[in-house]
Specification:
Elements (H helix, E strand, L loop, with lengths): L1 H34 L2 E4 L3 H4 L14 H7 L4 E16 L2 E10 L12 E5 L9 E5 H7 L6 E7 L5 E13 L3 H4 L2 E5 H8 L6 E6 L5 H11 L8 E4 L5 H39 L1 H9 L4 H37 L1 E3 L9 E3 L5 H27 L3 H6 L3
Parallel strand pairs: 3-8, 5-7
Antiparallel strand pairs: 1-9, 1-10, 2-3, 2-6, 2-9, 4-7, 5-8, 6-7, 11-12
Helix pairs in contact: 1-8, 1-10, 1-11, 8-11, 10-11
Length: 387
C-alpha cells in the first residue's frame, strides 16, 4: 500500500513539476523580451494605437518617469518606440516590424535575446541594427552588411536611413524572428521625426511582486489617470494565459486518474486486510470495543499509512526531480518556435501540497468501505475464524 501511495505522488510531482517549469519558462520569456512586468502607455493605445500610433507618444522625461525608475523593486524602466516599414538589402525589399530601444537599459532584458551572429546594440553606435534570423535569412543578410530602412514619418512623408547590421538574433517566437528588427531609440526618432516612445516597459526584480508594485505605481499616477494607463504583463500575455488554463485542466485530470488508481489499490488491500484480521477484530469487539471505534481504528491506520507514503513519495520525487533537472530534458522546438530547449522539473510548495492532498483524500475514501465492513462483522462468526 505504501508503494502505491508513493508511486502516485512521485508521478504527480514529476509530471506537475515539468508543467510548472514550462509555466515559469514561458512566463519569464514573455516578460523579459516582449512585455516587461508592467507597461505604461497612453490611454487607448492598445485599442487604437495601430491606426494612429503617433497620437499616443509618451514624452522622454516627466517627473513621474523619474520617480518610477527609483521605486524599490524596479530594476529598469525602458522606453520603446514601435514602428514598421520596408527593409532593403541589395535588390530585395521586404516589410518589417521594428522597435526603437535604449540599448543600455535593454541590457536588463537580454537573457531572452539570443545573438546568433555578431553583437547586440551599442549606445555608441546609433546607426546600427540587430535583425531577427528569419528576416535576415529572407534577405540574405549577415552581420556587417548595410541595409536601408524606409518608414512613414509623423507628418505623412517618407524617410529613410542606412544602417549597419551588427547582429542577428533569435527568440522563442519564430514568427517574430521572421519580421522583426531593433534599432537605437535615437535613430528611430530621427527616422520617424518624432520625440518620445509608445511604451515605458517596467522590469521588476521579482515577478511575484508585480501586483504589489502595480498598486504603488497606480498611487503615484492617481492624479494623472487620464494621461497614463498601467497594464501588467498578465493582462497582455494571452497565449500564456490560455496555455496555463489548458495544462492546468490536463493536470487536474491526471491528478484525478492517479487518485482513483490509489483509491482502488488501497481499497483492495484494506479489504484483504479485514479478511485476514477477522479474528482480531472479533476479539476486540468481544472485549467491548464499539463498532464506531473499529471504524475509527481502520480509518486512523489508513491515514497513518497515507502520511507515511506521502512523506516517502515526496522525498523520492524531490530527489528524482533534482537528478532529472541536473541532467536536463532535451525538448524539440515548440510549435511556432525556431529553437529547441532543455527543460527541468520545478517542484513548488503548492504542487507538493496538491499531491499530498490527493493521496490523503484517496486513502481516506479507500478506507471507508473496508472500515465499515470490519465494524459490521458478527462477533461469534469473527471469533470462529481463529479456530
Amino acid at each position: 500500500m505504501l508503494s502505491g501511495i508513493g508511486v502516485g505522488i512521485i508521478a504527480l510531482l514529476l509530471a506537475g513539476g515539468f508543467i510548472e517549469w514550462i509555466f515559469w519558462a514561458m512566463r519569464e520569456s514573455t516578460i523579459l523580451f516582449r512585455l516587461g512586468h508592467i507597461q505604461v502607455v497612453r490611454p487607448g493605445y492598445l485599442d487604437r494605437g495601430a491606426a494612429d500610433p503617433y497620437r499616443f507618444l509618451l514624452p522622454h522625461s516627466v517627473d513621474e518617469l523619474e520617480v518610477l525608475a527609483k521605486l524599490p523593486g524596479i530594476k529598469v524602466v525602458a522606453p520603446r518606440l514601435s514602428f514598421n516599414g520596408l527593409l532593403s538589402h541589395g535588390d530585395t525589399t521586404i516589410g518589417f516590424i521594428g522597435e526603437g530601444i535604449d540599448p543600455e537599459k535593454e541590457k536588463a532584458f537580454k537573457p531572452d535575446l539570443s545573438i546568433q551572429e555578431g553583437v547586440g546594440l551599442d549606445p555608441n553606435q546609433p546607426l546600427s541594427a540587430v535583425i531577427g534570423n528569419g528576416l535576415a535569412a529572407n534577405l540574405g543578410i549577415k552581420s556587417g552588411d548595410k541595409v536601408v530602412l524606409l518608414a512613414n514619418t509623423v507628418s505623412g512623408g517618407i524617410n529613410a536611413v542606412e544602417l549597419n547590421v551588427v547582429g542577428v538574433f533569435s527568440t522563442a517566437n519564430k514568427a517574430f524572428d521572421d519580421s522583426a528588427l531593433r534599432i537605437p531609440l535615437i535613430t528611430a526618432e530621427k527616422l520617424l521625426r518624432v520625440s518620445g516612445a509608445h511604451r515605458w516597459t517596467v522590469l521588476l526584480d521579482d515577478t511575484s511582486d508585480t501586483k504589489k508594485i502595480l498598486k504603488r505605481i497606480q498611487q503615484l499616477f492617481i492624479e494623472k489617470t487620464g494621461e497614463f494607463q498601467l497594464i501588467p504583463w498578465y493582462d497582455l500575455a494571452d497565449f500564456y494565459n490560455k496555455t496555463v488554463r489548458l495544462f492546468s485542466q490536463q493536470m487536474n485530470v491526471l491528478g484525478g486518474i492517479i487518485g482513483f488508481m490509489i483509491l482502488l489499490g488501497i481499497s483492495n488491500v484494506l479489504i484483504m486486510n479485514v479478511m485476514d484480521r477477522t479474528s482480531e477484530i472479533g476479539t476486540l469487539m468481544a472485549l467491548g470495543l464499539k463498532r464506531l471505534e473499529i471504524v475509527r481504528l481502520f480509518l486512523a491506520e489508513a491515514l497513518m499509512l497515507g502520511v507515511i507514503g506521502s512523506v516517502l513519495g515526496v522525498s523520492i520525487g524531490w530527489g528524482l526531480a533534482a537528478i532529472i533537472s541536473a541532467i536536463g530534458i532535451p525538448m524539440p522546438p515548440a510549435p511556432g518556435t525556431s529553437t529547441g530547449y532543455t527543460a527541468e522539473i520545478f517542484i513548488t510548495g503548492p504542487l507538493i501540497a496538491k499531491a499530498v492532498l490527493v493521496a490523503l483524500i484517496s486513502t481516506f475514501l479507500a478506507s471507508v468501505f473496508p472500515a465499515w465492513k470490519a465494524s459490521r462483522l458478527v462477533i461469534v462468526e469473527a471469533l470462529r475464524k481463529s479456530r
